[in-house]
Specification:
InterPro entries: TPR_COPA_B. There is one protein chain. The chain is mostly helical. It has a domain at about 230-240 and about 265-290 and about 300-345. The chain has helices at about 20-30, 35-40, 50-55, 60-65, 70-80, 85-95, 95-110, 115-125, 125-135, 140-150, 155-165, 170-175, 180-190, 195-205, 210-215, 230-240, 255-260, 265-290, 300-310; strands spanning about 1-10, 10-15, 315, 320. The strands form two sheets. A two-stranded antiparallel sheet has the order 1-2. Helix 7 packs antiparallel against helix 8 (about 115-125), helix 8 packs antiparallel against helix 9 (about 125-135) and helix 9 runs parallel beside helix 11 (about 155-165). Residues about 295-345 have low confidence and may be disordered.
Length: about 350
């Protein structure tokens, strides 16, 4: 070790130069790595980060990672080299949220999904977890995330999780608990019509604190059913599709659902009514022609023919006929055997 002292304008400045460090860098620049490695043990530990930075500048990142002692610096080097497991070990020691996020992004781009999940959990990246679970179709993971998001006060993430799972009642309750009652009323109108009256009552009570006249102007479908188009149909659709919300279609079945129309269930019900009327009219014409030709079918055949012309709808045990007002979802009304279900988009 050599010391130099300079006198400049009455100021004394001291510099310490490590001969072993100078010799090591010289040998590395000459490409004599074997002799350089022999000298490395003579360099003090506190200078190893200096050596690592020098090696990194020479493009020798692997050697720099082995020599570096600073955790933050080693993490950056491990990320550069794609050494994800080593980076994870360092992140566990440091427990830095920014490092977990950085590692999680790299793990996702590398297809390391389990590591991605672990990193996002440590970083509390709830939005990232929602993207991951929904992409994988992991219903259990989405369910756990909904609870975690609610505990953390991330209501937007919690709502999306519950909606993805088809837990509409829980979505409604979350909106009410978040004091977003108008949104809850709108959601109930479209997805849970049986809950509209209950939510309107809460809305009136809340709105009356600000404007009592506006609160009184809110219409309740129980009081004014004429103001709510297709109200009974909506109630029937809700009742018959409630049990299908918890049934999640496998991703492999997507091709059979991709070409389905975006028509709403109420519109589908209207179309079915028109088809039913046309079907019955055609049935009467055929019967009259058969009588004119002298081929009158017996009573049993007539009942069977009427049964074949009936439309079938989902109900408690399976199907009901077209005369029932409780059915609202087509099960087998066409050659393609389409099935309409009320489930949220994934």
């Amino acid at each position: 070790m050599t010391y130099f002292t300079f006198l400049w304008e009455c100021s004394v400045v001291g510099y310490t130069l490590l001969l072993s460090l100078i010799e090591y860098k010289t040998l590395v620049m000459r490409g004599d790595l074997d002799r350089a490695n022999q000298i490395l043990p003579t360099i003090p530990k506190e200078q190893h980060n200096n050596v690592a930075h020098f090696l990194e500048s020479r493009g020798m990142i692997e050697d720099a990672l082995e020599i570096a002692t600073d955790a933050d610096y080693k993490f950056d080097l491990a990320i550069q080299l794609g050494r994800l497991e080593m980076a994870k070990e360092i992140a566990e020691e440091v427990q830095s949220e920014s490092k977990w996020k950085q590692l999680g992004e790299l793990a996702m781009s590398s297809g390391k999904l389990q590591l991605t999940e672990d990193c996002m959990k440590y970083a509390m990246d709830l939005s990232g977890l929602l993207l991951l679970y929904s992409s994988l179709g992991d219903a259990e993971g989405v369910s756990k995330l909904a609870c975690l998001a609610k505990e953390q006060g991330k209501n937007n993430v919690a709502f999306l999780c519950l909606f993805t799972l088809g837990r509409l009642e829980d979505c409604l309750q979350l909106l009410v608990e978040s004091n977003r009652i108008p949104e809850a009323a709108l959601m109930a109108r479209f997805y849970l019509p049986s809950k509209v009256s209950e939510i309107v009552a809460l809305w009136r009570e809340d709105l009356s604190k600000v404007n009592s006249k506006a609160a009184e102007s809110l219409a309740d479908p129980e009081e004014y059913p004429n103001l709510f188009e297709d109200w009974q149909v909506a109630l029937s659709v809700e009742g018959n599709t409630a049990k299908t919300r918890g049934v999640y279609t496998a991703a492999e079945n997507y091709p059979s659902h991709a070409d389905k129309s975006s028509i709403t269930l109420v519109e589908a019900f209207r179309n079915l009514q028109v088809e039913a009327e046309e079907s019955l009219e055609n049935g009467d014409v055929d019967h009259e022609v058969a009588e004119e030709n002298g081929h009158v079918e017996n009573e049993g055949d007539e009942e069977e023919q009427q049964e074949n012309h009936s439309l079938f709808f989902l109900e408690e045990e399976g199907v009901v006929d077209a005369d029932s007002t409780d059915g609202a979802v087509l099960v087998n009304g066409s050659e393609g055997e389409e099935e309409w279900v009320l489930t949220p988009d994934p």
